[in-house]
Every structure is written in structure tokens, then in C-alpha cells.
Amino acid sequence: MSYVDDVLARVKKQNAAEPEFLQAVEEVLESLRPVIDANEEVYRKQAILERICEPDRQLKFRVPWVDDNGQVQVNTGYRVQFNNAIGPYKGGLRLHPSVYLGIIKFLGFEQIFKNSLTGLPIGGGKGGSDFDPKGKSDREVMAFCQSFMTELCKHIGADVDVPAGDIGTGAREIGFMYGQYKRITGKYEGVLTGKGLSYGGSLARTEATGYGVLYIVDEMLKCNGKDIKGKTIAISGAGNVAIYATQKAHQLGAKPVTCSDSSGWVYDPDGIDVATLKDVKEVKRARLTEYVKARPNAEYHEGRGVWTVKCDIALPCATQNELQLDDAKALVANGCFAVAEGANMPTTLEATKYLQENGILFCPGKAANAGGVATSALEMSQNSERLSWTFEEVDSKLQGIMVNIFHNLDDAAKRYGKEGDYVAGANIAGFEKVVDAMLAQGVC
Ligand code: NDP
């Protein structure tokens, strides 16, 4: 058996109850085959793949808190510190009822390669809890965040592990967690990113992931002889990534026409109105039925269906495995020519394969949504030098990083005879730097 097959079999056996983690490992290792085969002897002897697929450590802890009725509630907290070969662990905290160890491991594994692709010195990690902030009062969210950080603070630090936001963890949650970290440790340091502007946050961090998706799509289209101007875009999600992807799409002269949440989706033929969407999601924290009340030409549909809308470009920006084989077929049938993943692993393996086989330009999440973590690393730099950069300065660095990422993965794909396969290109480019650092640092 080849080295890749050996390791895949071992990972499947050891993590059988974690399908999302297995999916992520399979996608990465399959596309790394040419690189591994070319260096099989060294990598096998150094157990590079076994080491990269096994987290440095995984923490699981009890998070007790008191609800508004005086009832004690208990959630489970996680932090998976996956690989710090090129820098301190870095990755968000997901607060969602679906969270369990397998989700955090898949996200942490992806984060290793994504962070490497940014070109910045950050390792891979991820964390979160099965706590659901939806429907909780601000006091309940604070009680949870303080309890969560009471344990987490023992394992993180500005040069050790720097968590950030993700699904369910926005500015409010980061603020509560930062306050508790400071209170327990007495340290005022850049231990979390996505902080508020009054206490060390970076301008443009809120916008970064969504903007970054559009910057890389713009570059991918240019390099393939196409122009984003005037194109119709289907976007899923209605959270941080989706909102700012929608905003930047408008700014680049495209027309984003959809958004969605876990209840349903909206088609707005006039183009999604960002101010209305922000008001519904960021201010009222309401469902998308509120959006159509303010936009009479827009339609609301219950359930799934956003990928049935005719579009040129599709940007899945909600959650994992939301774009499945049937959706991929509908997109191709409707003339879509490019897909970029704003969310982490939103496209199933079968759907990705179908899209690529049908000539769709496909930019994977670890490249397309890397603008978020890249700007988090810029926030870390500003915290270290105790300075704040302007919005334009951060935004222009972000744009440069996204353009650079695209060329890195394009070049890596070409070097291994896989021109246009940006999934392979992203995995190879991300992997090469991490492995180089691992080999240099010996057996650890
Ligand atoms: P938010 O919590 O702000 O928004 C998530 C959106 O996706 C919401 O509209 C939510 O709807 C929807 N959603 C979540 N779960 C489901 C589901 N099971 N089915 C349908 N819709 C769902 O998260 P973000 O925008 O921050 O994150 C979105 C994705 O982008 C995630 O995969 C995240 O890991 C990834 N990402 C985020 C980065 C960031 O900087 N924020 C950086 C890089 C990647 P509802 O409100 O109804 O739950």
C-alpha cells in the first residue's frame, strides 16, 4: 500500500465516529498524493502524515453556568491545538449545538493549511462548545463566556494560542471572553482576535473574511479571462461572512441576489440590500422573513434551495456540507462557472468532484476564506507593536494577501501538473511550508 493509503486507513480506524474530520483528511491527503509520492521515503520515515493528522493536544472541559431562572446548565468546551510548526495555534471558537470533537478536529486540521497559505506565522487550532447563543439573554451569554474562559485561559496566550470568532461567536462573545481572560490572568495582551476597536481590535477584521472571498474570486476570474463586473452571484448564509461578501460583491459591480439562514432563503431580484440584511441579522438578530417585509420584490422560501437560483458565481458562506451533489448539478445546469467557499468545507466531496469535472473554477475554503485569519494575524501584529493601522492600510494588506494566495495555489497546482485544480494547489502550497518547518524542528 502507498504511504497515503496506509495513513488514510489508520486515520479512518482511529477516528471512525468523526465523519467531518475524516472527510477533511481524505480531501487533503488525496490531493497531496503527487507531493507525497515524490518524497515518500523521507516522509514515511519521519511519519510526517501521522504527525500532521494527530493534534498536538485536544482539550475537552465542563462549562457550567447559571441561566436566568437560576438553573445550572452544563455545556462541553473544546480546544484542539493541532499544529504549531509555523507559529502559535490560531483558529476560531464555534458556538453551535452541532459542535462535538469531530467538528472541531476537522476545522483545526483545515486551519493548519489555511494559515500556512496566508504566508503569515500562524499555526492551526480550533475550539468551541455545543452552547447555543440563539435565544439566550446577554446575561446568559456572558455567564457562559466567563465560565468557558475560566478553563480556556489556562491553555492560551498571545504567543501560545490565539482564538477568534466563528459561527455563534461574534463581537459580543469575544468581548465577554476577553474581559474574563484579563480578569483571571491580569494580562492585557492580544490573546483573542476579533476584539472591539476600543480594546485592541483591528479595523477591517469584521469585513475581512467576506471581502477576502471576493478579492480572491476577482483574481481567479481575471487569471481565467473573465470579469466579475455585471455577474449574478448566489450567496448562502446571512452571518458575518455572507454579509460582507455581499457588500464587496456590490462594490465590485456584481449583483448578489440570495442569502439564507438555517430556516430558509431569500431571492431578491434587485440585488440583496446590505443595510436591510445587517439590520435584520446584526441589530434585530431576527429570521430572514423580516428581510422580505422590508423588500417587497424579494421572495422568501422555507428550507434549502438557494443553489437552484440561476447565477454565474456561487459562494457558499453558511456551514459545512451545505452544497451537495444535487446542488452542484443544478448550478452547472444553470450556467454557473465559478464557485468559491466562504464557509469551511461547505461543498461535499462528491459535489466538489462534479463541479471540477464540469469545468467550474472552484476555489476551496482554505484559500477563499483565509482573509479572516490573515486579518486576525494583522490584529496580532498591531497588538504587539501597540499601534492601530487605518482601515485602508489593513484592507490593502488583505487584498495583497488574497491575490498572493491565489498565485501560490495556482503555481503549486501547475508545478504538479494539475493546472486549474485549485483544491490540490491550496493543499500542496499549504502543506509544503508546514512540512518544511516540521522537518527542520526534528521529532516533536
Ligand atoms: P455566523 O454565525 O455569523 O453565520 C452563519 C450563517 O450560516 C448564519 O446565517 C446561519 O443561520 C447559517 N447557518 C449555520 N448553520 C447552518 C445550517 N446547519 N444550515 C443552514 N444555515 C446555517 O458565522 P460566520 O459567517 O462567521 O461563519 C460562516 C462560515 O464561515 C463557517 O463555516 C465558518 O467556519 C466560516 N469562516 C468564518 C470566518 C469568520 O471570520 N467569521 C473565517 C473563516 C471561515 P442561522 O443564524 O439560522 O443559524
Give a structural overview.
With 444 residues, this protein is an alpha/beta fold. It contains 17 helices and 13 strands. It has helices spanning 3-14, 19-38, 40-45, 48-52, 101-117, 138-152, 171-185, 205-223, 240-251, 274-283, 289-294, 325-333, 349-357, 365-368, 370-385, 391-415, 422-440, and strands spanning 57-66, 72-83, 89-95, 123-129, 161-164, 232-235, 255-256, 258-260, 264-267, 299-302, 313-315, 338-340, 361-363. The strands form three sheets. A five-stranded mixed beta sheet has the order 1-2-4-3-5. Strands 7-6-11-12-13 form a five-stranded parallel beta sheet, with helices on both faces. Strand 11 (313-315), helix 12 (325-333) and strand 12 form a beta-alpha-beta unit. Helix 5 (101-117) packs across helix 17 (422-440), helix 8 (205-223) packs across helix 16 (391-415) and helix 15 (370-385) packs across helix 16 (391-415). The structure holds NADPH dihydro-nicotinamide-adenine-dinucleotide phosphate (NDP). NADPH dihydro-nicotinamide-adenine-dinucleotide phosphate binds at residues 165-168, 209, 237-242, 261-263, 317-319, 322, 342-344, 369, 372.
What brief labels describe this structure?
binds NADPH dihydro-nicotinamide-adenine-dinucleotide phosphate, globular, 444 residues, alpha/beta, five-stranded parallel beta sheet
